[in-house]
């Protein structure tokens, strides 16, 4: 017996092809159908093939009515767990202040740290849940969520407690990351003392927690943490069994891409200013590049060279980087920016939010629709995947399924 059958997907985008071109890699089945059993894809083909099969009883049949069906979107880079907001900083940015000068004056990340530390767990969960709901309504079924607004053990534990509670309260699957080096707390000075204390005191305590985060991450950037500091932190994280991520070369070439390759990061993220050698090293080590054009848009900084990074041999994922600095809840907008500002093709942009985003969170059972993969998929009320970066600002996601169960539907079901 099957739990669910989906029929008449005008385009069933599986992302399961193996090919040099992004279009072929999408591996689109016309008038596609699939079967779900035990939360996983049990069969995939055309509606006609399904009609010719004797499949026995099916609990529920969903008619996609000729609409587009894609894998559930995976957002591989977010700071979605935070308290408060920073809408006035938009005006400061318009008046000419930049991200780094706002941070240096106690705004930016440091302001969110103050507000997050002062929040209750229930408050933090409530605010964050509204953002996760928005992402779900836009077709996101899995997202990475970072800590990093605590900056000490108590603050980071507070965030992890909120994430633990959110896991039980949302249909979106959360992949937690401990962002141990995000900003230097006020008074910590520029010495290595703060980094040492994180490595010695905070990191091992986080590693001991039950339900500990999968990834450990650091912000390698001129004026934030140096490549040497991040190297020590990431190696210590690796020794404690964490998988690694890094914020690399967002504002300036800081050696982040090369370090990602050296320590074996699963992904290196941002990469707007990375050197060619750094990118080449990442390609050799199989480090996935996570590009975040929504942040380039909100911080008025250069967009990453998506085509060059891809041509060098790196797989390219896209993420929202949802945070109080770049409050982006729409993967569709990010795909648009990827296409218009970084000259990605619509097929490449969609692979960036599915197959390669899953790779950036080390999950090969997500981001594709193939037999055995998790049955996460989205019915979009458009006829082709080419609409995703093309039609922006409205809402056309009609149904979202997580592990074969409907997690969201728009309007009448
Ligand atoms: Zn980030």
Describe what you observe in this structure.
This protein is of the alpha/beta class. The protein folds into 2 domains: 2-72 and 368-409, Urease, subunit C, domain 1, CATH 2.30.40.10; 73-360, Metal-dependent hydrolases (TIM Barrel, Alpha-Beta Barrel), CATH 3.20.20. 37% of the residues lie in helices and 23% in strands. It contains 16 helices and 16 strands. Strands 1, 2, 3, 4, 5, 14, 15 and 16 form an 8-stranded mixed sheet that branches. It starts with a strand and ends with a strand. The model has no long low-confidence stretch (mean pLDDT 96). The site of zinc ion (ZN) has 4 residues, from loops.
What is the gist of this entry?
By secondary structure, the chain is an alpha/beta fold.
Morphology: globular
Radius of gyration: 21 Å
| Architecture per CATH nomenclature, i.e. the level-2 architecture of the largest domain | Alpha-Beta Barrel
CATH class of the largest domain: Alpha Beta
CATH homology superfamily name of the largest domain? Metal-dependent hydrolases
CATH fold-type name of the largest domain: TIM Barrel
Main β sheet profile: 8 strands, mixed
- Report the helical percentage: 25-40%
**Overall tally of structural domains:** 2
Count of DSSP strands: 16
> What separation lies between the terminal Cα atoms?
24 Å
Tell me which ligands are bound. Answer: zinc ion
């Amino acid at each position: 017996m099957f739990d669910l059958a989906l029929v008449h997907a005008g385009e069933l985008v599986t992302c399961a092809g193996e090919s040099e071109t992004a279009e072929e890699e999408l591996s689109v089945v016309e008038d596609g159908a699939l079967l779900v059993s035990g939360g996983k894809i049990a069969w995939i083909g055309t509606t006609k093939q399904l009609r010719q099969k004797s499949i026995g009883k099916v609990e529920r049949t969903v008619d996609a009515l000729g609409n587009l069906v894609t894998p559930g979107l995976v957002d591989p880079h977010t700071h979605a767990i935070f308290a408060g907001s920073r809408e006035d900083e938009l005006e400061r940015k318009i008046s000419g202040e930049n991200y780094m000068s706002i941070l240096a004056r106690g705004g930016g990340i440091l302001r969110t740290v103050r507000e997050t530390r002062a929040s209750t767990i229930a408050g933090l969960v409530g605010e964050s849940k509204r953002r996760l709901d928005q992402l779900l309504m836009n077709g996101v079924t899995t997202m990475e969520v970072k800590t990093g607004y605590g900056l000490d053990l108590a603050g980071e534990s507070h965030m992890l407690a909120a994430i633990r509670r959110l896991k039980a309260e949302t249909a979106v699957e959360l992949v937690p990351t401990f962002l141990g080096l995000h900003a230097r707390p006020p008074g910590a000075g520029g010495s290595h003392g703060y980094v040492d204390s994180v490595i010695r005191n905070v990191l091992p305590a986080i590693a001991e927690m039950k339900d500990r985060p999968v990834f450990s991450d650091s912000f390698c950037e001129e004026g934030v943490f140096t490549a040497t500091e991040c190297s020590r932190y990431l190696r210590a994280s690796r020794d404690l069994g964490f998988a690694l991520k890094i914020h690399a070369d967002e504002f300036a070439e800081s050696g982040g891409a090369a370090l990602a390759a050296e320590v074996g990061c699963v992904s290196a993220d941002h990469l707007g200013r990375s050197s060619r050698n750094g990118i080449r090293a990442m390609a050799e080590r199989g480090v996935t590049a996570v590009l975040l054009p929504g942040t380039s848009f909100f911080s008025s900084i250069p967009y990453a060279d998506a085509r060059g990074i891809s041509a060098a041999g790196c797989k390219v994922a896209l993420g929202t980087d949802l945070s109080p600095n770049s409050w982006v809840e729409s993967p569709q907008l990010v795909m648009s920016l990827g296409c218009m500002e970084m000259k990605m093709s619509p097929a490449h942009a969609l692979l960036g939010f599915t197959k390669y985003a899953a790779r950036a969170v080390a999950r090969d059972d997500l981001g594709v629709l193939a037999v055995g993969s998790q049955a996460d998929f989205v019915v979009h009320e458009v006829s082709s995947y080419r609409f995703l970066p093309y039609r922006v600002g409205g809402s056309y996601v009609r149904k979202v399924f997580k592990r074969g169960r409907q997690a969201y539907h728009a309007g009448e079901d």
